[in-house]
């Protein structure tokens, strides 16, 4: 029986367009504005557009929609480029800047003026808003609407030549001030703004508005399907008007899909920028954020994000996705790929009193117990070890099977040890745990067949390497929701916990920034790419060990 592959609604539209011969080759694009760093929501658009181009043997264009110099920076251009390439969206040589089309956009504006479809308007921004009307009341015509094409051309060229002050005049489309769609009530096409542009410098003092520039950019590049999020649905009639009135023979088609909404995360650029500007986070790549640079620094992989987007799918209506699904995807991606190593985050010393003082032996340890292909390594073992403080209790709690006075446990890949004593400081804090070991139990099994219920991990004191470990939680207080009534963010005071006295296996000295590992019993961790130095290792927790989330 032939497998039936279900296609999403965008694929169905493309299939129909190809069947009807509307397009010979599919061209999609990802057109970010370089006014901030990309976040997890943008990844959906990148992968969707790239995936469609790949699926249909077409082209994928990567374009910077840089028509607003007031907010755009070269820093953002470079970060976006890095993110797109990191995700694996291969744009080949198809990288573009909207600003490269400024001359052609200007020509299109003059064409509209000559056709009587655009006019120069002298109303102030406040007056334009007033004349626009409301959702229930129609707008009214500007007193400048009936200027002749000749007058408008003279004025528009004077705008271009810098003869008018910023904000004194705009170019508007002449459509319908009574339209039920507010976007069609003579929208602004160009405004005057004497701003230095990151790409064109001071060449221009007038800049096109997004709703005018965007359809033109798509049309110039031969984009067939302009796939964007649902908030642009009401803008589609204007999109179609622009490409029609500018007389493109094969205009692109705009299709809208639902945005990705993750529960309890901050994705709005202005909110993220506020967190950065106020020093609440240490930059756009702070691992508590969901910018792509932050996820990359935290240790997320492109594969995990691609898998996440597959699970989310493509829909026509908005819905929220549990952040736990993203965490599931990174766990699933790493579990068979990364070595499992010992790291002690809250150390207490364990002394094996009957173990020879100067003896060191090397235990053979599997790099990944679920993936034999990853081989083995040698781990040093000796008289003094670091163990987790929580792995020893003076008084045994119920259902506690780790170390306590008189109890025997297994040292992972080591020996059976029995607690005989402990030492405390003047405040009653345990400073040392004393044990004896069974020399016959090397490797973690006893020849007499006796069983122990507890197994704990360890790092040999003389060989242990000190490290800083950062435990990240959601930056949002999940119980209160993302935003307060005044629009501020409900910050989680415990979103970052820094542990400075941690000890890890000596093999981690060979790790490079960005390398990730499973810390046994702790979770998945990544060597920080920003703060790690040869003298100071910093590990970020990517995700904890377990989750209740399971994909359907």
From TrEMBL:
Superkingdom of the source species: Bacteria
Domain Glutamyl/glutaminyl-tRNA synthetase class Ib catalytic: 25-335
Keyword NAD assigned: no
GO MF annotation terms: ATP binding; glutamine-tRNA ligase activity
Pfam families linked: tRNA-synt_1c (PF00749), tRNA-synt_1c_C (PF03950), tRNA-synt_1c_C2 (PF20974)
Glutamyl/glutaminyl-tRNA synthetase class Ib anti-codon binding domain mapped to chain residues: 339-438
Compartment(s) of residence: Cytoplasm
Catalytic activity: tRNA(Gln) + L-glutamine + ATP = L-glutaminyl-tRNA(Gln) + AMP + diphosphate
Record-listed E.C. numbers: 6.1.1.18
Subunit structure of this chain's protein: Monomer.
Protein name: Glutamine--tRNA ligase
């Amino acid at each position: 029986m032939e497998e039936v592959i279900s296609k999403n609604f965008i694929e169905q539209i493309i299939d129909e367009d190809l069947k009807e011969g509307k397009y010979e080759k599919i061209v999609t694009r990802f057109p970010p504005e370089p006014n901030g760093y990309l976040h997890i929501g943008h990844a959906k658009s990148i992968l969707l557009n790239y995936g469609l181009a790949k699926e249909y043997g077409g082209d994928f264009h990567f374009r910077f929609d840089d028509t607003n110099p007031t907010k755009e920076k070269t820093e953002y251009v470079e970060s976006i480029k890095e993110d797109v390439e990191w995700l694996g969206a291969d744009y080949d040589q198809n990288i573009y800047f909207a600003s490269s089309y400024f001359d052609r956009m200007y020509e299109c504006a003059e064409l509209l003026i000559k056709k009587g479809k655009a006019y120069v308007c002298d109303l102030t921004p406040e007056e334009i808003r007033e004349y626009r009307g409301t959702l229930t009341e129609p707008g009214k015509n500007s007193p400048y609407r009936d200027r002749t094409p000749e007058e408008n051309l003279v004025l528009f060229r004077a705008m271009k030549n810098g003869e008018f002050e910023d904000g004194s005049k705009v170019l508007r489309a002449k459509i319908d001030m009574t339209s039920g769609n507010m976007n069609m009530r003579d929208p602004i096409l160009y405004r005057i703004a004497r701003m230095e542009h990151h790409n064109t410098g001071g060449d221009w003092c007038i800049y096109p508005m997004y709703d005018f520039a965007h359809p033109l950019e798509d049309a110039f590049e031969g984009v067939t399907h302009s796939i964007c999020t649902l908030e642009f649905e009401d803008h589609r009639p204007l999109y179609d008007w622009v490409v029609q009135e500018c007389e493109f023979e094969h205009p692109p088609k705009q299709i809208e899909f639902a945005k990705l909404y993750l529960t309890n995360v901050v994705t709005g650029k202005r909110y993220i920028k506020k967190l950065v500007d106020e020093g609440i986070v240490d930059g756009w790549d702070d691992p508590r954020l969901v910018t792509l640079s932050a996820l990359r620094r935290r240790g997320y992989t492109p594969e995990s994000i691609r898998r996440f987007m597959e699970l989310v799918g493509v829909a026509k209506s908005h819905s929220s996705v549990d952040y736990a699904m993203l965490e599931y995807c990174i766990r699933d991606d790493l579990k068979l790929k990364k070595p499992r190593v010992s790291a002690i985050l809250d150390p207490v010393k364990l002394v094996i009193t009957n173990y020879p003082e100067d003896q060191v032996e090397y235990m053979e340890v599997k790099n990944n117990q679920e993936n034999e292909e990853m081989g083995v390594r040698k781990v040093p073992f000796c008289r003094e070890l670091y163990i987790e403080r929580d792995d020893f209790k003076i008084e045994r709690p119920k259902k506690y099977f780790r170390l306590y006075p008189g109890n025997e446990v297994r040292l992972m890949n080591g020996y059976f040890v029995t607690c005989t004593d402990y030492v405390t400081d003047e405040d009653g804090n345990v400073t040392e745990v004393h044990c004896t070991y069974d020399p016959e139990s090397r490797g973690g099994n006893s020849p007499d067949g006796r069983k122990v219920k507890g197994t704990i991990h360890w790092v040999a004191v003389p060989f242990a390497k000190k490290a800083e470990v950062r435990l990240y939680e959601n930056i949002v207080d999940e119980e209160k929701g993302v935003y307060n009534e005044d629009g501020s963010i409900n910050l989680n005071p415990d979103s970052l916990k820094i542990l400075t006295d941690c000890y890890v296996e000596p093999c981690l000295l060979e790790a490079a920034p960005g390398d990730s590992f499973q810390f046994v019993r702790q979770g998945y961790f990544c060597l920080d790419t920003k703060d790690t130095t040869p003298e100071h290792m910093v590990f970020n927790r990517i995700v904890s060990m377990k989750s209740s989330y399971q994909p359907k």
